[in-house]
Amino acid sequence: MITVYSEAHQQHHGAAELDRGRLVPCVEQPARAEAVLQALTAANLGPIVSPDDVPIDILARLHEVGYLHFLKTAFTRWRQVHPDSDALPYCWPPSGRGHPPPSLYGQLGHYAYDAGTPITAGTWEAATAAVRVTLSALRHLHAGARMAFALCRPPGHHAGPDYYGGYCFFNNAAVAAQAWAEAGARVAILDVDYHHGNGTQDLFYRRDDVLVISIHADPAEEYPFYWGHADERGEGSGRGYNHNLPLPWGTGWTGYREALDQALSLVAAFKPDGLVVSLGLDTYAQDPIARFALTSDDYPLLGRAIATLNLPTLFVLEGGYHLATLGHHTVAVLRSFALQAATS
């Protein structure tokens, strides 16, 4: 198995996020990716390589050009007024976003849907590096590899066509699916993060060439609240190609496996040429910002189940915030997938 990793992720290091009325230290931190890297190295699952210097013009085919320009310039503009802090919004449109105002403060509220995703000095560099990590990992699948792992940070599945939030700026999994589709493939995305991949849903909601399936906490009680309901099935030509499988707080492996089996059946029926897995490990019972009840014994079962699809598979790192086990659980999924794939 090939893992692609860039140390450029370390340049994105937010100081604080607003969480339920309190300004708290960011839980999405460089130590996450480093924990996964350390565990992969110790497990000796395969080569760990740097990304190729691939062009990232694909971003403009997924994300709105004005949004890209905003992200590239926002921190420089912010620091001209606030030399000692990261950029966070404080004001949002009450309904209907309309056009972004010229004010930086207005633009922050226009493009961000939460106050938990600070833009820092190195956000642009880290986020674009994550895109290159993803595209480079996909190249290994194009070359015949059965699986590859894009060790991405910041994560991506909450980033939509023209918005960011949930610690995400560019949608790495969507980048992979778009690039694969542009190469002529039918692609399925399976999102197993605790939180609904709202950005991924929005990016493909009106398309029938990419199947999107998400298993996640019920948005009736969990972030991101406004997306992820079971009746959100796609629109236009995309009707029937978006599937949400929301689960209640406290879900353990038995309930999760039922949803996973349903998701895998949907993928198989779609008959894709390849699979992108948005790999979130925040389904763990002790994750500090989640409320599922999976145990360490469940992650090998997850990897093994996904491997039964017998598809070229790109794993893209999303969430997971219990640092003591994040690397171990990532390895558990990838190793069990590799072992199962080797026998099929």
Tags for this model:
344 residues, Arginase, Chain A, 8-stranded parallel β-sheet, two-stranded antiparallel ribbon, 36% helix
**Sheet with most strands: strand arrangement:** 4-1-5-10-9-6-7-8
**Average pLDDT taken over every residue:** 98
Topology pattern, helix = H, strand = E? EEEHEHHHEHEHEEHEHEH
CATH superfamily: Histone deacetylase domain
- What is the name of the CATH topology? Arginase, Chain A
Give the fraction of residues assigned to helices. 25-40%
Give a count of the beta strands, DSSP E runs of length 2 or more.
10
Unreliable residue runs: none
- Choose one word for the global shape: globular
**Radius of gyration of CA atoms, rounded to a whole number:** 19 Å
Number of domains: 1
* Backbone structural class: alpha/beta
SS element count, helices: 9
Largest sheet, described in full?
8 strands, parallel
Query: Class, according to the CATH hierarchy?
Result: Alpha Beta
Beta-sheet strand percentage?
A: 5-15%
Cα(first) to Cα(last) distance is 16 Å
Q: What's the architecture, going by CATH?
A: 3-Layer(aba) Sandwich
